[in-house]
UniProtKB/TrEMBL annotation, chain A:
Molecular function, one GO term: diguanylate cyclase activity
InterPro entries tied to this protein: Diguanylate_Cyclase, GGDEF_dom, Nucleotide_cyclase, Rev_trsase/Diguanyl_cyclase
Name this polypeptide is given: diguanylate cyclase
Chloroplast is among the record's keywords: no
SUPFAM superfamilies assigned: Nucleotide cyclase
Species per Swiss-Prot/TrEMBL record: Paracoccus broussonetiae
Pfam families per UniProt: GGDEF
Keywords: Nucleotidyltransferase, Transferase
UniProtKB/TrEMBL annotation, chain B:
Xref: Pfam families: HNOB (PF07700)
Limits of the Heme NO-binding domain: 3-153
InterPro entries referenced in this protein's UniProt entry, alphabetically: H-NOX_domain_sf (IPR038158), Heme_NO-bd (IPR011644), NO_sig/Golgi_transp_ligand-bd (IPR024096)
Designated name of the protein: Heme NO-binding domain-containing protein
Taxonomic lineage of the native organism: Bacteria, Pseudomonadati, Pseudomonadota, Alphaproteobacteria, Rhodobacterales
C-alpha cells in the first residue's frame, strides 16, 4: 500500500485511522485503533457497520459511503457497547476513515487501558474524561453536603416533636401522630390511652422538682417497656401521658395492659437514697367503637375512663375532673 | 464555590489537627458549628478569619497554613486525578497551569475569574505569574504544586514571591511517581 510516507505521519496525526483497500481488507490502522481491533486484516473480523444503512453488510456500499464523505458508524464485534464513528475519503487507491470514540470514550479507555499518548493534542478526549471525572466528584460532594443538611434537618424535626425530659413525643408530636392514626383508622384500628399519675403533686412538694423529673422519666421508661415499637407514646405536659396502641383490642386485653403498666409504674424509683413511689390511673378509648372520624369523642371517652379508674382506685364515686386547660 | 472552600478548610484542619482543634478555632472565630454547615453564612472574610485564627492557635504563619492546605488537597484522590489529567510529567503539568483557571471554571460554578501564566526560565526553572487571584490562593497553589511534585516523584524547589511562584525542578524521577491511569478503577 503506497501511502505518501515522510510527508505526513499518519499514525501520529490520525492514531484512530483505518485505511481500507476495499470493503473488507484492512491496509493499515492507527496505533490507537489497533489497541481496539487487534492485528486483524479483515474488517468483518472486528467491526460491524451500523451506518449508513446502505453500507450495512455491503462492502461496496461501505466504499461508496466513505468515498462520498458520508458519516460512518461501526461497532466493535468483540466489545459490546463500543461504537466508533467518523468519516473519510479516497486516498491512494484505498479508502481512509478517521474514527473517533464519541460517547464510547469512557468505556473504551477502561476496556483497552488507553492513555494520554493514545490521543492527539487536538482531540478533546482528555478534556472529556476530565469533565466526566470532575462531574462525578462534584456530584458526590454535593450529595454529601445534601446528606449533611438532611441529617441536620431530620435532627431538628425530631427535636421539635420530642419531649426534652422524657424523650417521648411532646404534645405537638403526639397530636400529629394522632391525626395520622385517625386518617387511617379504617384500615388500622387503634386504642387511645390516657394516663396520669396519682398524687404526683405530692412528690414535687415533698422531694422537689428534681425528684418529680426522675419519676416522670421512669414513667416514660415503664410505658416504653410495656408497649410495642409500633405504639406511639407522648407526654402531653405535667404528669399527663397519652398512647396510641396499634391494632384492635378486647376490653379484657386492655384491662390487662392497664394493670401491667400501672404495676410497672408503682415499682419504687430510686432518687438520692430515697425510694419514690407513685401510682397512676389509665383510661382507654377504642377506635373500633367509633364509626366516625371523631377525635374529640375518643379523647373525651379516654378522659372519662381515666377518671373512673382514678375514682375507683380512691374508692370514691366517679367525679368529673376539673378542666385544667 | 465558597462553600467548597469552607469545606476544604474544615476537612483539612480536622484531618491534620484534630476535631478538638477545629472546634476551638470555630469557637475563637465566634462561629457556631451548625452555622458553618450552612452556605448562607459563607463569605471571604469568614474564611480569612478562620485561617488567621487557625494560624495563631497552631503557632504557624497564615501562609504556611494555606500551603499545607494546598498540599493536603492534592492528596485527595479525585482531586489528584483531575490534576494529573493536565500533564504526563511534572514539567508538563507545570507548563499547563495556564489552563487551570479554565478547567476549574468548567467544573465549579461562580469560580472567580483569574489568570495564571507560566514563563520558563532556563533549564527546569519556571515563574508562575498570577492575575486577579484572590488573596491567599497563591499560597494554596504553591502548596498544591509541592504536593503534586511528590505525586510525580519529582524534586522541586518552590517559593512564593509576591504575585508569582518561582519553581525549579531539581530532579525528575527523584522518587517513584504515584500511578495514574486515565480510567478510574471500579472501586471509586
Amino acid at each position: 500500500m503506497s501511502v505518501p510516507a515522510g510527508v505526513l505521519d499518519l499514525d501520529a496525526l490520525l492514531p484512530m485511522h483505518l485505511l481500507l483497500l476495499d470493503g473488507d481488507r484492512i491496509g493499515r490502522a492507527g496505533p490507537t485503533l489497533r489497541k481496539l481491533i487487534g492485528s486483524t486484516t479483515r474488517l468483518q473480523d472486528c467491526l460491524e457497520v451500523e451506518r449508513p444503512p446502505a453500507a450495512i453488510a455491503d462492502p461496496a456500499g461501505l466504499c461508496s459511503a466513505i468515498a462520498s464523505g458520508e458519516p460512518v458508524q461501526m461497532r466493535l464485534r468483540h466489545h459490546a457497547g463500543i461504537t466508533l464513528r467518523g468519516r473519510g475519503g479516497r486516498l491512494a487507491g484505498g479508502y481512509l476513515l478517521d474514527l473517533g470514540l464519541g460517547m464510547s470514550l469512557v468505556q473504551a479507555v477502561r476496556a483497552f487501558d488507553l492513555n494520554g499518548a493514545d490521543f492527539t493534542p487536538s482531540d478533546l478526549a482528555l478534556e472529556l474524561l476530565f469533565l466526566h471525572e470532575a462531574n462525578r466528584a462534584v456530584m458526590a460532594e454535593l450529595a454529601r453536603t445534601n446528606r449533611r443538611l438532611e441529617e441536620a434537618r431530620a435532627a431538628e424535626a425530631k427535636l421539635a416533636v420530642t419531649d426534652a425530659l422524657t424523650g417521648l413525643l411532646n404534645r405537638r408530636g403526639f397530636q400529629t401522630e394522632l391525626e395520622q392514626a385517625m386518617r387511617s383508622l379504617r384500615v388500622q384500628p387503634f386504642v387511645l390511652a390516657q394516663l396520669d399519675l396519682d398524687d404526683f403533686k405530692q412528690v414535687n412538694d415533698r422531694f422537689g422538682h428534681a425528684a418529680g423529673d426522675v419519676v416522670l422519666q421512669s414513667v416514660a421508661r415503664a410505658l416504653e417497656s410495656e408497649t410495642r415499637a409500633t405504639d406511639r407514646l407522648g407526654r402531653m405536659g405535667g404528669d399527663e401521658f397519652m398512647m396510641i396502641l396499634a391494632g384492635p383490642a378486647s376490653a379484657a386485653e386492655l384491662g390487662a395492659i392497664g394493670r401491667r403498666i400501672i404495676a410497672r409504674i408503682r415499682e419504687p424509683v430510686a432518687f438520692k437514697g430515697l425510694a419514690l413511689e407513685v401510682s397512676a390511673s389509665i383510661g382507654f378509648s377504642r377506635s373500633q367503637d367509633h364509626d366516625r372520624w371523631d377525635l374529640a369523642a375518643m379523647m373525651a371517652e379516654a378522659d372519662s375512663a381515666l377518671y373512673q379508674d382514678k375514682a375507683r382506685r380512691r374508692g370514691q364515686r366517679p367525679q368529673r375532673r376539673r378542666q385544667t386547660d | 464555590m465558597l462553600g467548597m472552600l469552607d469545606r476544604s478548610l474544615e476537612a483539612f484542619l480536622r484531618d491534620c489537627h484534630g476535631d478538638e482543634a477545629w472546634r476551638d478555632i470555630l469557637a475563637a472565630a465566634n462561629i457556631r458549628p451548625e452555622e458553618f454547615l450552612s452556605s448562607a453564612f459563607t463569605g471571604r472574610s469568614r474564611i480569612r478569619r478562620i485561617v488567621l485564627i487557625a494560624a495563631r492557635k497552631l503557632g504557624k504563619a497564615p501562609e504556611d497554613i494555606l500551603e499545607d492546605l494546598g498540599a493536603w488537597l492534592v492528596q485527595i484522590e479525585p482531586i489528584r486525578r483531575l490534576l494529573r489529567f493536565s500533564g504526563t510529567s511534572y514539567g508538563d503539568f507545570v507548563l499547563s497551569l495556564g489552563e487551570l483557571p479554565a478547567r476549574a471554571g468548567m467544573i465549579l460554578a461562580d469560580m472567580p475569574e483569574f489568570g495564571l501564566a507560566v514563563v520558563q526560565k532556563g533549564q527546569g526553572g519556571f515563574a508562575i505569574l498570577s492575575r486577579r487571584l484572590p488573596p491567599g490562593w497563591l499560597n494554596v497553589l504553591a502548596g498544591a504544586l509541592r504536593g503534586m511534585a511528590d505525586d510525580y516523584g519529582t524534586l522541586a524547589l518552590i517559593s512564593v514571591n509576591g504575585e508569582a511562584i518561582l519553581l525549579s525542578i531539581a530532579l525528575e524521577g527523584h522518587a517513584a511517581s504515584r500511578p495514574f491511569a486515565l480510567s478510574f478503577g471500579e472501586a471509586q
